[in-house]
Amino acid sequence: MCSVDELKAEIKKLSAKATNMKMNLHDLSEELPINWGNILTIAQETHDAYSALEAARQKLKELEAA
Asked: What are the residues whose beta carbons fall under 8 Å from the beta carbon of 6, sequence distance 6 or more?
């Protein structure tokens, strides 16, 4: 089981990754229609990054409440 401090460090990493993916998606949208074929891939990667971040934040809430 992760400690609260370890989980907070992981959340920081996941947050940075999610922000990076958000920027990639934003950059792609500005370049459309160039690279339109990458929309689904980048959108899925962005979704996955935010999903992992949300799950880690929920786990932290649960650990802090215990």
From this structure: none
